[in-house]
Design brief:
alpha/beta; Alkaline Phosphatase, subunit A; Arylsulfatase, C-terminal domain; 2 domains; 11-stranded mixed beta sheet; 11 helices
């Protein structure tokens, strides 16, 4: 006999809501609680307070670029598996195949309402937009914020000087990026065009949509997954006019202040809706800091920029709050990877992860809740695009390819370089000759990874739909 509507609603209300705020290119050293804040020109009181109310990770790891990290979050799979290992170049088939099962699809299957706002970066074709990949609603852009600069390339000003070539950007040659509103089962509706003016108000729009979604579902007693894909602090780093000049320390600091305030709006919406105790809030970043002048970010104690395998690229801020379940004020330096969010959030919702494919993430719920002292992850292989560049294991790292800045040429090392990440935060000293035993556990990660690629052949970048997995090789 089917459950009555009241029983279904009661069962659903027991499931915790999930709000995942993913900052864009926010370096390790930006937030006050990670040693930034006023040192970067703007305090971050709301995010700092969130950290004191839950768990803060010092060794949360992401992939080296935007699309790969977002793919890893959505699928629980390293991006090399799904053909999303690099930011796509214009003109190619991009994004996740429809064969992938996203976390939004898993949560939808458990009765969650799912919403996403901001940059998707996992497919530009209509079928591959968020509402084709498990989300009930979406507001944002399919690709990336730097396309906002196209309309300014022929303007003569201090930030974007003229290139001195009449063959500048032309909308008839390459169309501007659309801003969409979309609902599952309906054709996406273009509500704007991404230009510099629209860029200024994107964060406000993202926040307003997220707040409305939280309020609506709280009123209805429906569990929800809110994926807030923040536009801050991706280049061009430009604040909303409401925040321009607020810090007196320039655009970058103003944007940091705006990001903190927008996060506060979302936290206030959760509190005011009376659902704070039954809502998991996660604040994280998809990448290390920006490397492009004049928007360079800060990597804190680490070396490098994103688009590399340095710690500055791989380590990102991560805060998780779940009142009564995750002990407040917890700090850990254990390794956690963004792929781990997939099985962890699935476990929270009572969903089962797929068994017909490789899932690289591990469930970290018991670790987060303080039921065990350490993470369930010892290490991972680190790719930059399609290059296996390094491997991490506990407090050690082995580099196969060295690249410090995204604009540097990657150099294949004659011998792998082993770094002690506790004594050498800048990754300057190779200790391999003194601790050659480390090669065994670290290379095991590599060999196991390579074996899994044989068992589950990876999807090639640019693969169109429909996709059928190749026969696995044992």
């Amino acid at each position: 006999m089917p459950l009555c509507a009241g029983a279904v609603q009661a069962a659903n209300s027991a499931k915790p809501n999930i709000v995942f705020i993913l900052a864009d290119n926010l370096g390790y050293g930006e937030l006050g609680v990670y040693g930034g804040g006023i040192l970067r020109g703007a305090p971050t009181p709301r995010i700092d307070a969130l950290a004191s109310q839950g768990m803060r990770l010092l060794n949360f790891n992401v992939e080296a670029q935007c699309s790969p990290s977002r793919s890893a979050l959505m699928t629980g799979r390293f991006s090399m598996r799904s053909g999303t290992y690099a930011v796509p170049v214009g003109g190619q088939t991009d994004g996740l195949t429809l064969w992938e099962i996203t976390i939004a699809e898993l949560l939808s299957g458990q009765g969650y309402r799912t919403g996403m706002w901001g940059k998707w970066h996992l497919g530009s074709a209509e079928a591959r937009l968020p509402t084709g990949q498990g989300f009930d609603e979406w507001y944002g852009i399919p690709r990336t914020y730097d396309e906002a600069m196209w309309t300014a390339q022929n303007q003569s000003n201090s930030m974007w000087p003229s290139f001195g070539n009449k063959q500048g950007w032309n909308a008839d040659v390459v169309a501007p990026e659309p801003i969409y509103e979309a609902r599952k089962g309906q054709k996406p509706r273009q509500v704007g065009t991404l230009n510099l003016q629209a860029r200024l108000t994107m964060e406000a729009g993202i926040t307003d949509h997220a707040v409305a979604f939280i309020q609506k579902n709280a009123r209805e007693g429906t569990p929800f997954f809110a994926y807030v894909s923040s536009s801050m602090v991706h280049m061009p780093v430009l604040p909303n006019p409401e925040f321009a000049g607020k810090t007196g320390n320039g655009d970058w600091a103003d944007c940091l202040a705006e990001m903190d305030a927008r996060t506060g709006q979302i936290l206030d919406a959760i509190r005011d809706a009376g659902i704070e105790d039954n809502t998991i809030v996660i604040f994280a970043s998809d990448n290390g800091p920006e490397a492009t002048d004049p928007w360079q970010g800060d990597s804190g104690p680490w070396r490098g920029t994103y688009f590399t395998a340095t710690e500055a690229s791989l380590r990102a801020p991560f805060i998780i709050r779940w009142p009564g379940r995750i002990p407040a004020g917890t700090v850990s330096n254990d390794i956690v990877h963004i792929v781990d969010m997939y099985p962890t959030l699935a476990a929270v919702a009572g969903a089962k992860v797929p068994t017909d494919r490789a899932i690289d993430g591990v469930n970290q719920l018991a670790f987060f809740e303080g039921k065990q002292p350490h993470s369930n992850r010892e290490g991972f292989p680190a790719y930059v695009a399609d290059r296996l560049s390094a491997v991490k294991w506990h407090d050690w790292k082995m580099h196969f390819i060295w690249q410090e800045n995204m604009y540097d040429a990657p150099i294949t090392l004659a011998e792998p370089r082993i770094i002690n990440l506790l004594t050498d935060l800048k990754e300057e000293r190779d200790v391999g000759a003194k601790a050659s035993w480390l090669a065994t556990p670290m290379m095991k990660i590599v060999y196991d990874w390579e074996a899994s690629l044989k068992k589950y052949p990876p999807i090639k970048m640019g693969t169109p739909d429909p996709y059928t997995p190749a026969t696995s090789r044992h």
